[in-house]
Amino acid sequence: MIWLTLPALLLTMVGAQEVQQSPLYAAAPEGASVSLVCLTRGALFGGVFLERRWPTPANVIYFEDQVEPTVDRAFRGRIAFSGTQSNLTISMSLLTPNDSGVYACRAASERRARSPGTMVAVTGEGQRVKSLSGDQSSPSMVYEDMSYRGGNQQRR
């Protein structure tokens, strides 16, 4: 009876793996920073990955308590950590428009539990909204950099 109970208990612990992340969306101008929070619950076999899922998939970091973090070459010198692998804040600094994308926390576990992710939008300094029409009374338009143009004034 004990032999059946112990494996069932272990499977329950592993099956309860959960990863949460905040915020869901972060916007920043070029050169600024954003911070993502990864929360994990349940049994981990290692640490936490931050994956870039879109537009180009990559492992950005791997963080495990008491182990030197691994940081992708493109982000070296621009990543800071605080907390533990169960409550980890990852700050990305000196952002460029190429850093825009979807970033998701993933637990190093058998189930590979992952959060839905954070959409990070970095606007470049030279990005401006342009009207497709010379008519100043045309409707406002929103483009991929999420800038807004209404009437004769441009707002950032």
UniProtKB/TrEMBL annotation:
Residues 1-16 form the signal peptide. One of its GO terms (biological process) is adaptive immune response. Keywords: Signal. Residues 126-156 are annotated as: Disordered. GO terms for molecular function: signaling receptor activity. One of its GO terms (cellular component) is membrane. Residues 7-123 form the Ig-like domain. This is T-cell antigen CD7.
